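Risk register update: the risk of archive-format incompatibility is retired. Evidence:
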Amino acid sequence: MMLQELLTPWGEQISDTPWQVYPRPQMRRDSYVNLNGWWDFETGWDQPEEFTRRIRVPFCVESVLSGIHEHFPEGTPLWYRRRFTLPQDFNRGRVLLHIDAADQRYTCFLNGEEVGCHVGGYTNAVFDITEALRPENELIVCCADDLKDLTLPYGKQVLPKKRGGMWYTPVSGIWQTVWLESVPENYIHDLKIVNKGHTVTVDVGNEALSGTVAVKNLGRFELTAGKAVIEIENPHLWSPENPYLYEFTVTCGDDTVSSYFAVRTLEIKTVGGHPRLCLNSKPYFFHGLLDQGYWPDGIYTPASPEAYAWDIQKMKSLGFNTLRKHIKVEPQEFYYQCDKLGMIVWQDFVNNGDYGYVRDTVLPTLGWQVWPDRHKHLNKAARAGFFRCMEETVAQVGNHPCICYWTIFNEGWGQFGSSAAYDRLKALDDTRFIDSTSGWWRGHKTDVDSRHIYFGQWWQLKKGPKPLVLSECGGMTYPEEGHLFNPEDSYGYKTCKSLQEFQYGITDLYYKQLMPAIRNKGLCATIYTQVSDVEDEINGLVTYDRKVVKADQKLMRELADWLQKLVAEE
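Archived output:
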């Protein structure tokens, strides 16, 4: 199999020190040292005395952009080394090391002293390294990844020999920004922003902290028991059409952080005889795309954060207002771009546990889609690993107003006790829509009736007591020569011989199947598969390298206008 090394436009211009944007947009300080760039690299079961290779952080070892472009046997320790000195007067009291994501387990050593460890490939970790600092510093990170360990979330990664179809190249090692910041001895550890109705609560996570929240154009609000409650009369509401953000700063003693929030409401109302998902008190059609978040040159990480803005703006230009972030948690920069540019995000949690082709794909496709899940995937460690990642994900990205919808389980992958999982998530966040079981193996507790249709089972779309959501559909494929990751094989749900046939297949699906379902069955949302080609999958609206847009912008805009018109007429 001859796989092609495709580069995105940003990968063609990659710098030695990539990803220099501030990595935590909703909690900014002016102290910041970025450690991305070339690190020393080695593998082995013991800490190496010499490092013979170089790796570009923050790209996984399997990626072209890392400079390694190799997958090592499962569990192989990956050793990273970076030497650094701190800028003069940088240390204000404490110095924190941030590793925003590394897959899956890692331990950090500074000047020979262990300073912290973390488990989980999709969430960040922060270590206080103050006591271990020296004038000249050597940071070593030892990371190990084992896809045979199904207790940890892994998404769509598979072992290299099993790669293909809807399963992709594995990702190992550091794949998000590594950075330092300095804080005073008493500092703001956390910032939680909750938007309910026209009220926003800013919580610094410590009842003992006092201070103020200064909101641009609104005024100053005092922290009481670590919280400031901001009630806004006649707020400027956030939506994809008008993504307005309120900027603010929080000051507690010697520490100041800057951030932003948005005001928007999410409700379920009966309109025209159908339960409807509403944004800002009005029925809103969530016209979306499946967004896998893969790149041919960086795999999990685009060469530049500008690539996120390109994807978002290109999909908006095609008339879409929603991206379903599929079984992956992105760097916060992605959600910031969605907040700022106006793109709703449906955020999936990342699956673990085993996948069974017959159980999880064949039987549901044939129509067997109800199966009690209390006694599925009974492994206690796997269940605990899933919940830990779910809770950390909510804490990490839950402040972003673009996220309007959580998906707990997808197509039964690792699914267990979905009703109990719904209750657990609702206790963490009761401000967003929750889809407990996207596709099938439906449980009892969920906010929506969520269906996947790829093979014409349109009878499954039925009017019911919950808002009807088509959370996956479509998958028309077209191979754009010269832009194929795997020219010898492809994957999708309907092959098209020309771009005209490709576009006709998409518009035919919407006009003949989905629009009647909006009128007659109360369909509230569609998630078309997908934003871009991904490895063997060639069902994207753009190619994997983001160099060719396959969809016709004029026809897609007309289609989008009709969708919103249908909902507005109710």
